[in-house]
Amino acid sequence: MNVTTTDADRRRTPAPESPAGTGRLLGLLAFANTAMFALYMGVGSVLLPTQIAQIDPAHKVAALGMIGGVSAVFATLFNPVAGALSDRTGRRGPWILGGGLAALAMMALLGGATTVLLATIAWCLGQAAMNVHQSAVTAVVPDRIPPARRGTASAVVGLGLPVGGTLGVLIASQTVSGLRTGYLVLGAVVAVAAVLLTALGREPRREPAPPVPFGRQLKAFLSALATHDFRWAFIGRALLVLGYFCVVGYPLYILTDHIELPAGLEPAAAIAILTPVSMAAMGVSTVLGGVLSDRWNRRKLFVGVSAALAGLVMIVPVVSPTWTGMLVFSAVNGLAFGCFMAVDTAVVTLVLPRAEDAARDMGVLNIASAGPQIIAPFVASAVIAGLGGYTGLFLVGGALSLLGALAILPIRSVR
User: Fold this and answer.
1) Among 49, 331, 343, 409, which residue has the fewest nearby CB atoms (within 10 Å)?
2) Which alpha helices (H) appear in 145-223, and where do they start and end?
């Protein structure tokens, strides 16, 4: 892919970090991503489902699906819009800091919610704040990391998902009897990470982008999708994420209503066991996938195989709806999803159409992560109600992930 770089483009795009600066920056980004995923996983997997089950136990699946779908709209809208604004201002730091502090305030509001409506409003605002924060954090890698180190950088940053997910679920499971405390702790971790990244990250100042008429902005907003490779990367991620979240959005209810747990093991405690299993596997595959994809320069192979594996492993809880089956599923699914997200992120940074629009275009790509989360709760609740319960849910999730694997094949500029 050939992209013409003008003098104005170069002035707005910071030079890559030195090796020492790269190491410090990656450490800060790793912590920021860890905090971010701790909140997402702790709230989404444990705190919010528990809260909704307490508020409306008879309609918990439908209520949680509605909250998940509506809040994902906010995530989908705010991520690329905030990314475009941070491109426009030439700064990531204020958006990282503002989003992180706003997230803490929204977690305080969510912790006090006593109705489904109030919980919906609070989590929607929380998603908005977190996606303002996330859009700017995500743009730092294409801004400041050399292309030859993108796979390794994506792997290091990608460890935030397994590590943060594990910590978030453990914090949430330990505070499930005091939901407000759990929400505040997770929000505070994000706020602290945002302060450290903006204070210690030494962000180079980019020149603000020149003003653009609204019509041109609207046209440019999704212009990256006109690029062949970016479009297929978008489609592949969207399908994989849709399949993934159709299933992982309901872990508490799956363990309550579908899986035969050992005597004495409660669903919330089971999540606290399964999550470290999945996240440890995810951590291993994130590092290995990122490093080996750089070394072998074969990123499409890693992305396609991991997406296919994520689809095939969905059959395990269908044929074995047992505690052992869930342990196997969690481990293999973690391996597949970790490798996919690490290497796919590297692929995306290499097919971005324009370096100076990195945050905007990464935000557009994040629609492929957030957008399916709008659809997934409604798809999942419909499948559970009308297509064989949780068995049908696993099969649908697997089919979507396999389609995501096939969507990687048309990408041409990355091996």
Assistant:
1) 409
2) 150-158, 160-174, 179-200, 214-221
pTM score, whole prediction? 0.70
52 CB contacts (<8 Å, ≥6 apart)?
60, 63, 64, 67, 116, 119
**Rounded Cα gap, residues 9 and 207, in angstroms:** 10
The CATH number for 147's domain is 1.20.1250.20
Report yes or no on 382 lying in a domain: yes
Domain that holds residue 131: 18-204+219-406
Residue 400 in any domain: the answer is yes
Helices 93-111 and 179-200: crossing angle in degrees, nearest 10, is: 170
Q: Which residues of 339-374 are buried (b: 16+ CB within 10 A; e: fewer)?
A: bbbbbbbbbbbbbbbbbbbbbbbbbbbbbbbbbbbb
Closest CA to 71 of 106, 35, 111: 106
C-alpha 43/C-alpha 182 separation (Å) is 8
In a domain, 113, yes or no: yes
Q: Are 191 and 386 in contact (CB under 8 A)?
A: no
pLDDT of residue 385: 81
pLDDT digits (tens, 9 = 90+) for 102-160: 999 999 999 999 999 999 999 999 999 998 998 888 888 877 777 777 777 777 777 78
Q: What is the pLDDT of residue 384?
A: 85
Q: In the prediction, which pLDDT does 12 show?
A: 42
On whether residue 214 sits in a domain, the answer given is no
Cα-trace Rg, the chain: 20
pLDDT at 292: 82
Residue 391 structure tokens: 């068995």
Do 228 and 412 contact (CB within 8 A), yes or no?
Answer: yes
Given a cut of 50, the residues of the chain with pLDDT beneath it are: 1-15
What is the model's pLDDT at position 1?
32
Reduced 3-state DSSP string for 307-349: HHHHHHHHHHHHHCCEHHHHHHHHHHHHHHHHHHHHHHHHHHH
